[in-house]
Structure formats: structure tokens, C-alpha cells
Amino acid sequence: MIEIINLSLLAAIIGLDVTAFGQFMISQPIICGPIFGYIMGDMKTGLWIGMIVELLWVKVIPMGAAIPHNYTAIAIFAIFWGIRSGICSNSVFILSLLVAIPLGMLFRPLDIWMRYMNVKVVHWVDDNIKRGNEDAIGFGIGIGIFLFFLRSFIFYIILFYPGLLIVRLIYHKLPMFAINGLNICWWVLPVAGFGMMFYNFHHKFFSIKS
Amino acid sequence: MKNTKSEKFIVDIFWRSFFLQALWNFERMQNVGFVFALMPLLKALYPDREKRKKAILRHMEFFNTNPYMVNIIFGLVSSMEEEAVERNSEEFKDIDAIKINTAGPLAAIGDKFFWATWRPFCALVSIVLIFVFYYDQSFDGTWLAPLFYIVFYNIFIFPFRFWSLIVGSRFRTRIIKIIAGLEFKYLTDIVRYAGVALLIGTVIFYLIFFAHSVKMLMIFMTVFALSVLLSTIRLSSGMITYIVVGLCVVLAWFKI
User: Fold this and answer.
1) Are A200 and A117 within 8 A, CB to CB?
2) Beta bridge partners of B29
């Protein structure tokens, strides 16, 4: 349990980089993947999974007011479940990735809801400024950071353990051919990522309008 | 070009600009972050609390741009606020207009260059490093790839964020010409073509060293083509992942 709390704290702090603070790219899967892998004792796998997620989600960008899916969470969940499943096979990491994808998507409505909550904080800041309390601006920023942190922390701490059970349960029910297929994916998914990166760099030649 | 009083606050605004999106909201987006960064300057320019309150409320309106490009607007707005105080002007429409009108185009440039081009390029370079190390059987992880990514990505962006604040403050509206002169479009194209060249090299390297049989080579090439094809019809990354995994499981079922 302590490990889950610690990892949730770390994941929530790293998650601040996505929107709330800096955008130094610490939250990119290729960075946080090896960090989580190292902490959990398998940096090599963390690096590989981080790389796969980085490649596959390369075309997802936080453009304008759009709220993208949280691919940082996808990488972190996949690495945690894969390593802590206790199963020594690449296939379990791919299965973890497949389970993590819908959860990364689940993060989005939570993110959107929280940004609506931020509107209330902005109104509170507005009211305080009108009353002459300028300190509310700094407090508002603090509350915003805290809410971003809290949202991620709760999300990770709730889902780390149930997700692990789901991965173990599904894995033990998988037929041999499916495990073989997942093992092949370990080497094939980076190639799918190359395709997406190729599209990302060259999309103007593919898209009809631009 | 002249040194302005607002330049004294450049370092303060620079550090505070990292909090631009801390209270991102669906009503006025980055408004509180914008005011938060400008506060040291507003306190110095408007010692009178009532005047300062009006200035703060002016900047609490809707604002949204790319976080890497925002310092240009901070520079511009700082120097224009300072000028308005020097002229004892009560007219702030120009400041509001330039703030809103530059935010959109700068966001478009920033999104296209930093998010859609520079980030994938840096990721690709560090992925090449991973492959080079991963091929060695005794490899058990390297910090080189993530460190390279973070340094390589920020080595350009960090100075740009600081420089754009200074230039925005000194050159005011002429900054638009300077930004146009930077030829972001060509820069984007150069990085994009370099990215494609590096990607082709990486794919060839991967095919040679990671495809251990002709069958595997065929699967790799099919998946690459499929992934590009599915991207063109704008299928989500998650969906493409499921399709590719499904394909691999089917192939395993047929013992291919």
C-alpha cells in the first residue's frame, strides 16, 4: 500500500508538467517510463513501454482548448501492472497496455470536470480582486496546482490495485496463442508507432484538405 | 530599441510564466495565470491600489495561447502598460487588442512547431538511442535516452522563452516582424524533413536488427503501412493499437 501511495504521489507530481506547471516534458512517456521502471526494478522494460506509448500517441497534442487523452497515465499503468503482476513475460506488459488505454481515456472526462471546477475558483479570485484582495491571485494559482495534483493522485491511487487484479485475472484466462500474439506485439507495436510518426511528420501529403 | 523599466521584472515574469496554465479553466482559460505572471510589474507600475485593481481586472479577461509563445505577449503587454502609465493614459484598448490578436496566431505557430514537430523529433532522436543500446543483450536500461530527450527539447525552448520576453518588451509591435523573420514555417519544414529522414533510417535499422525472420519482416512492413493508412482516416491511437494487437493475435492463432 505504501508503494502505491508513493508511486501515486510521484505520478501526480510528474502529471503537473502536462498542464499546470512548466511543460518541460518530464511527463512524456519516454521520460516517466524509465523513471517508474527504475523505481520498480525494471528500467529496461519501463524504457521500452515508455517508448511504445510515446510513438503510438505522438500525434496527440494539447492544441487550443482541446483536452487530449492522458497517455502519461497509460504508460505508468502499463509499467506498474506489468512489473507487479509477477509474470515474467513481455506479453503481460502488452496486456497491461491494452487495459490501460480505456483508463487513460477515462482520465479525460475527469480532467474536463476539474477544469469546470476551476471556473468557480476563477470567480472566487474575481470577487476577491474586486474587494481589493490581490493575494487571491497567488492563492488561486496554488488551488489550481493542488486540484491538478489531487485529481491525478486520486486517479492513480484508486486504479493502481484494481487494474493489477484485472490484468492478472485476464492473463491467466488467456489461451496460449493469444499470449504468443501479445509477445509478437512487443516487437510489432514500435513499428505501428513508426507509422504514426511518419504520418505526423508527413500528414500534409496524406490529409485531403491541408 | 530602448531599455524599458519593465525589463527589471523580466526574471520575475519569466519564472511566473511557468504557472500560466495552473488555473486553466473553460471560461477564460489562462487568464489567472496571465495576471499572476504580470503581478510584480503591475504592482510597480500602479502603486495606487484602485488603479491597480482596474489593471488586474482588465487582464482577467479571456486569454489562451501556446505556453511556449506566451512570453512574447508578456513582453509586449509589459512595455505597453509601462508606456500607458508614462503617458498617464486611461486608454487601454490597444493593449487589450494586441494581447488578444497576437494570442491566436502565436498559438498556431507554437502548436505546429513545438508540439507537432519539435517534440516528435526530439522523441525520435532519443528512441534511436534506445534501439542502439537495446540491441545489446546485456542492456538493462539507460538514462541517456530520457536525459537526452529532456535536454535536447529544452535546450532550444528554455532560451527561446527568455529571449522572446526580452525581445517582446524591447521591440513591441515590431516583434511581429521579428517572429515572421524567424521563418517558423521553414524551420518547421526543415525539422519535419530531418525527422522523416531520421525516421526512415530508424525503420531500416529496426527492420535489419529486430526482424529475425522473413515472416517477421513481412509483418513489420504490413503493420507500418496499416498504421499510416489508419492514421490517414483519423483513427485514434488507442484504436490503432487494438487493431494491431488483434492482428498479431490472429496471426499467432494461425501459427504464422
Assistant:
1) no
2) B25, B63
Test B25 with A38 for CB contact under 8 angstroms: no
For chain A, what is the HEC assignment? CHHHHHHHHHHHHHHCCCCCCCCCCCCCHHHHHHHHHHHCCCHHHHHHHHHHHHHHCCCCCCCCCCCCCCHHHHHHHHHHHHHHCCCCCHHHHHHHHHHHHHHHHHHHHHHHHHHHHHHHHHHHHHHHHHCCCCHHHHHHHHHHHHHHHHHHHHHHHHHHHHHHHHHHHHHHHCCHHHHHHHHHHHHHHHHHHHHHHHHHHHHHHHCCCC
Q: Establish if B111 touches chain A: CB-CB under 8 angstroms.
A: yes
Closest residue of chain A to B133, computed from CA coordinates: A44
Give the mean pLDDT of B51-70. Answer: 94
Q: Kindly indicate the confidence band of residue A149, based on its pLDDT and cuts at 50, 70 and 90.
A: very high
ipTM value for the complex: 0.92
Residue B25 pairs with which residues in a beta bridge? B29
From residue B123, how far is each of A194, B84, B88, B115, B145 by CA, in Å?
A: 12, 44, 50, 11, 9
Q: B61: Cβ–Cβ under 8 A, 6 or more apart, which residues?
A: B28, B31, B96
Residues of chain A in contact with residue B120, where contact means CB-CB under 8 angstroms, are 58, 197, 200-201
Using a CB–CB cutoff of 8 Å, tell me whether B188 touches chain A.
Answer: no
List % helix, strand, coil for chain B (3-state, nearest 5). 80, 0, 20
pTM of the model: 0.93
Report the alpha-carbon distance of residue B32 to residue B34 in Å, rounded.
5
Q: Which chain A positions have a beta carbon within 8 Å of B256's beta carbon? A: none
Q: How far are the Cα atoms of A43, A82, B137, B144 from residue B141, in angstroms, in the given order?
A: 5, 16, 11, 9
Q: Which of A129, A144, A177 sits opposite B56 (nearest CB)?
A: A129
Q: What are phi and psi of B25, to 5 degrees?
A: -140, 160
Interchain CB distance below 8 Å, B206 and A148: no
Q: Rounded to whole angstroms, how far apart are CA atoms A45 and B78?
A: 48
Torsion angle (degrees, nearest 10) of CA A126, A131, A135, A138 = 0
Confidence tier at A88 by pLDDT (50, 70, 90): confident
Task: Categorize the per-residue pLDDT at B2 as very low, low, confident or very high, splitting at 50, 70 and 90.
Answer: low
